Amino acid sequence: MARYVLQRLLSAVVVLWGVTVLVFSMVHATPGDPVRVLLGDSARGATAEDLARLRSELGLDQPLLVQYKNFLAGLLQGDLGKSWRTNRPVAAEIAERLPYTLQLTVAALLVAVLIGLPAGVLAATRPYSSVDYALTGLALVGVSMPVFWLGLLLMMVFALTLGWFPASGSGTWRHLVLPALTVGAASTAFIARMTRAAMLEVLTEDYVRTARAKGLSEWAVVGKHALRNAAAPILTAIGLQFGGLMGGAVLTETVFAWPGLGRLVVNAILTRDLYMLQGSILFTAFLFIVVNLLVDIGYSLLNPKVRFA
Amino acid sequence: MPNNAAQRIPHIFLALLLALAWAAPPVQAATVVVANPGEPPTLDANMTFNGFSFLVTNQILETLVYKDEAGFQPRLATAWEAVDERTWRLKLREGVTFHDGTPFDAHAVKFTIERILDPANRAQGRFVVSMIEEVRVIDAHTVELVTSSPFAPLLAHLTHPMTAIVSPAAVERLGEDFGRHPVGTGPFVFESWQAGDQVILRRNEHYWGGAPAIETVIIRTIPEPATQVVELRSGAVDFIFNVSPDHMNDLSSRPGIAVRKELGWGSTLLGFNVTQGPLADVRVRRAIAHALNTDAMATQLRQGLAVPATTGLVPETVWGAAEVGRYPYDPAEARRLLAEAGYPNGFRTSLLAFESPELRQIAEAIQFLLGEVGIQVEVQILEYGAYSALVTEPDREGMFLTTWGTVTLDSDYTLYALLHSSQIPDNNFSFYRNEEVDRLLDEARRNADEAFRLEAYRRVAEIVQEELPIMALYYPLFSYAKNARVEGEVINYSWINLNLADAVVK
Predict the structure, then answer these.
(1) How confident is the model at residue B8 (pLDDT cuts 50, 70, 90)?
(2) Which of A209, A241, B18, B488 is the residue whose CA sits 20 to 30 A from B238?
């Protein structure tokens, strides 16, 4: 087991290194003069010397390899650099936003599991019935509905018309409801579909028939025997969703003015805030990798066969 | 006669609403909520050049002077005079204290300006005051600003929000953290900033202009326009800015909501690289001016959120704007000029713009209108970094779209940057060189005589209209919508100048 974890850890480090290379080259290969973007409106009126001075102060006049080396050296010391835009350490900016993204992700996942799992089980126990069709249809809509549109729709209905929840912002649990539903919608649908498929497979197994033959209640058959055996793929699906949710939150955070990491990334892209962009993407990748690692380990605990594969 | 069920539905909703009303926090009457369309990078006005920052800092920090329709107005400076052509003497307001209790005086002015000038501080708007060579403290409430060469628009530059006076004691105490805890003399005192979410301000009970009626101002970052509109309509937000034409039309008919649109300091401009290809021929540029229906752009495309350009590159709100008229929309004349220039069948060229819904719309309109007279336009819309890299390339052939705010409200700010040959390629994307224009702009900078300066800018406007290195398509109006319960706000020239000092909540 320790060996397996070590292996997974090592490969996570390699993936992370790959991400640094990718992020760094993407950021630097994009056309345009970052110094001008950084200055924004004030580039109007700035002289060529001003621009050159700033470029050299920021180390942007050095060869790319040197810049990458400095970036990596800083990274190893936990230094993600300073945001050009705010002149504050990138790590501090991320730390400020992280709790909000985690709140939203966990709440969305909760929505997805609490709705998706029962819905999937329900559909699987009545395959090809009208309930099943209704649920699968709803799941299809959930998966395909653009986050942006769904967010505005929920806002119009629940904030403007009904006034149940605030339309945007943060601060109380009530602020969390609409964004969590929005982010969670696609995952709810995905988890419902995965659960339905996994359950359908399990429900035809011999031991389920045996359990039924023993005269166990349907509840015990489905809840204890079937669901437990279908758990592994469902858990993987949930784990994968966690990473996906953090990505999906980018748009939702913008729509709901939610102060999370996603908007930090968007802002960094729009303003070409290099260090902020590198740092926040890298950190998101790091979270993603950590979550996947945990899922892998959890999976191997559930299903010992995986460890030796 | 409606049936009973249909009649009952609204009652059910009403009951639900009432049941849930407990959950909605009561709105405090003296709290005003303002939507900021973006997150401020910092609240240190001296170190930024960002409108999202200025919307907030303008509530907390104050400039020496400001400008409205009647001209320069006193703020922290009460009187000013030119001692000689390089020296301005400013009398400062007495009895003013910063929010931290320290007195506002000549030392604070010197400290603030030198702070911006110090290259080590990398102030983004340093160029706004870079002509100041020395700040002399004459006595506690008198300063002299000495410029390296005569600089007539100096007072105009001191209206810029980035020159707002900060508390030296607070800067020394907080260091770089000042940008998270700004301390000034303004009508509202900084209380807290939840990054990405909101800034909370309380009224300054000791404000020199009298304590504001509004107790609390909350400035919330809400980037998405559709969300801003929902928040305004739901009553959670009182002010939203830069409202799109569609939303303006929708909101204007809603009870309890007031919309405003006014001519500000902005211009939307179409420029030409005058050194390359067919566009180097002034007849071709004039043909393009005739081919563009700028009236339709302002009234139809922008749906009345713009007015056609009549005063050269800056709107009439800007000091020194001169009436120059327009090239009338006349496709036949455009074709005639093109034929005369040797392009009877038109030519191919490009149009560069940076990403913005407005510029995208205008670029497409230009592409269509020029197509009508035979000019094939390839539109390139890029993010700003890529745009500025391309537009400053000397041998790039083609046109560019840009927007400009004459934030000092003095023509020098815009005309010098866009037209003076020393500004190639940093701001003069037209690569335009005209010795007479250079001389006029230099003289207008050096000479404090208003009549002389007005004449110089009038002449520059004429030459530009004649040679068309760049032309104004229209002047955008700045728009905002508010909850009608708030009255008495003052917004001069731009949304970033929101002033709630005298506003009241009904």
Answers:
(1) very low
(2) B18
- Confidence label for A308 from pLDDT (cuts 50, 70 and 90): low
Q: Which residue has the higher pLDDT, A300 or A97?
A: A97
Q: Which residues of A touch B387 (CB under 8 A)?
A: 32
* Range among A34-38, A223-227, B131-135 rated most confident: B131-135
The helix/strand/coil state of A83 is: coil
Which residue of A34, A97, A171 is in closest CB contact with B196? A97
Q: Which of A165-174, A194-203, B38-47, B51-60 has the lowest mean pLDDT?
A: A194-203
Q: Residue ranges of the alpha helices (H) in chain A?
A: 2-29, 34-39, 48-57, 64-76, 90-125, 130-144, 147-154, 173-203, 206-213, 218-220, 227-255, 261-270, 274-302
Structure tokens at B26: 């009561």
- Both tokens assigned to A259: 């102060």
Q: Do residue A50 and residue B386 have CB atoms under 8 angstroms apart?
A: no
pLDDT at B286: 97
* Among candidates B38, B124, B197 on the partner chain, residue whose Cβ is nearest the Cβ of A170: B197
Q: What H or E segment, with its residue span, contains residue B194?
A: strand B188-194
User: Do the beta carbons of residue A199 and residue A121 sit within 8 Å?
Assistant: yes
In this structure, the strands spanning B470-483 and B399-405 are: unpaired
Domain ranges of chain A: 2-76, 91-308
B340-388 confidence digits (pLDDT tens): 999 999 999 999 998 888 899 999 999 999 999 999 999 999 877 778 8
Residues from chain A that touch B179, judged by Cβ atoms under 8 A, are: 86-87
Please enumerate in sequence order all residues whose Cβ is within 8 A of that of B224, keeping only pairs 6 or more positions apart, or say none. A168, A254, A255, A257
Contact between B66 and B75 (Cβ < 8 Å): yes
State the Cα–Cα distance between residues A195 and B198, nearest whole angstrom. Answer: 40
Q: What is the ipTM of this complex?
A: 0.81
What would the CATH number be for the domain defined by A91-308?
1.10.3720.10
Instruction: Write down the H helix ranges in A83-203.
Output: 90-125, 130-144, 147-154, 173-203
- Which sign does the torsion angle of CA B423, B426, B427, B433 carry? positive
Number of helical H runs and strand E runs in chain B: 15, 20
Tens of pLDDT, residues B269-307 = 999 999 999 999 999 999 999 999 999 999 999 888 999
The span from the CA of A203 to the CA of A189, in Å, is 21
Q: What is the pLDDT of residue A44?
A: 56
Chain B partners within 8 Å of A256 (Cβ): 227
Contact of B165 with chain A, judged by CB distance below 8 Å, is answered with: no
User: Which residues does residue B190 pair with via DSSP β-bridges, in sequence order?
Assistant: B201
Q: Which residues pair with A252 in a beta bridge?
A: none
> For residue A123, is pLDDT > 60?
yes
CB contact under 8 A, B196 and A259: yes
- The beta strand positions in B383-439, using DSSP E, are 399-405
In angstroms, the CA B420 to CA B427 distance is: 9
Verify whether the Cβ–Cβ distance A254 to B224 is below 8 Å.
yes
From the list B127, B197, B231, the residue facing A259 with the nearest CB is: B197
Encoding tokens for residue B143? 């300063």
What is the dihedral angle through the alpha carbons of A283, A285, A289, A294, rounded to the nearest 10 degrees?
60
Entry pTM: 0.86
CB < 8 Å to B233, chain A? 160
Express each pLDDT in B213-245 by its tens digit.
999 999 999 999 999 999 999 999 999 999 988
Q: Is the pLDDT of residue A186 over 90?
A: no
| DSSP state letters, B320-353 | T----------HHHHHHHHHHTT-TT--EEEEEE
State in Å, rounded, how far the first CA of chain B is from the last one: 40
Contacts of B194 in chain A (CB under 8 A): 170, 259
What is the average pLDDT value for chain A, to the nearest integer? Answer: 83
